[in-house]
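In response to reviewer comment 3 from the previous cycle, which asked for concrete evidence that the modeling workflow produces usable outputs, we include below a single protein chain processed end to end. The sequence was submitted unchanged, and the resulting structure tokens are shown without manual editing.
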Amino acid sequence: MLLERERELIVKYGRKLITSNLTTGSGGNLSIYNREEGLVAIKPTGIDYFDMEPVDVVVMTIDGRVVDGNKLPSSEFNFHLGLIKSRPDITAVIHTHQVYATTIACLGWELPAVHYLVGFSGNKVPIAPYACFGTPELADNIIRSIGNYNACLMQNHGLVTVGANIATAFTAAEEIELVARLYYQTKCIGEPVILSNDQMAVVGEKFKTYGQKK
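The workflow returned the following structure tokens.
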């Protein structure tokens, strides 16, 4: 079975999306790119995360040809492959329908630096214009809007996060949900104080040395 480890991780983190309340049912999708093999493991379309097994995960070439698996790939494979091809630092892509981030996306807003943990994306989370799911237009909108950020809201749709591995992409999705909730709640009370670009630049530098390092 090609990309056995990557397929196992797709199953593991797919289930974590559900248990962490980052999506529901079979919604959302995730992928991992093995650069040495030039292959991408991606969630199959329309399958419940707790029914999905590693053998169900689809393996594709970076140009979109299925090379292993007997299921159809995610309907959003266009933007997964597009993001991976657009930036050499991207090895994993996660797309969710998490409630608070999607609420902000449904308002057509970017997510500003209401809390320093927005730094998991950058100094904000930009938003991509709406396009129907599964279309090349949506893929183009996301790739253009995300730039060098690690997260991007999708108008009237959800959130996409990227990372050097699936764990960092998942952490970004979790932390952005917290920031989105804080933004929602502060907007309900008044006008939140937004951190400046200079303040977020300091956060970005500190993030480089945060956590356990090898």
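The CA atoms of residues 23 and 102 lie 10 Å apart. We consider this sufficient to address the reviewer's concern, and the full set will be provided in the supplementary archive.
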